[in-house]
Amino acid sequence: MTAGPVRAEAGHGAWEGVEVLRYKAEGTAPFKDITRQVLFRDPTLACELRYFEVGADGYSTLERHEHTHAVMILHGRGRVLVRDRVHAVRAHDLVHIPPRTWHQFRAEGGAPLGFLCMVNAERDRPELPTAEDLAALRRDPEVASFIRA
User: Fold this and answer.
1) CA distance 34 to 59
2) pTM for this predicted structure
3) Which domains does the chain have, with CATH numbers?
């Protein structure tokens, strides 16, 4: 990435000169209609700023990691699972996802959900839930109706 500003293009979810990437390789984990862009990476800061856009009926993978996530919702509305609670989110909300915490984002309202996510530049691979993990999460009816796995 070059020094100086990276301008957002008209509309949501695109920055000049920033490649829109697949969220993950198909078949590696359950997800639907989501893309990612790496907006900022600098080894001196040891972090990476990424933009994710979840399509109108999409969702991210239910997963957890050793690293923390710092998320800011840019546009749209949806819900997010953090640990064992489902929270409504909308533009300008901040979401803290501690290490080893189950999380999943879903768009709602017939429109995309776009958010920035700051993570460690060097980070672990995601961990998917086991059958036992899913059973524990599904003990709560709200969580059970929310998660996609």
Assistant:
1) 7
2) 0.89
3) 31-146 (2.60.120.10)
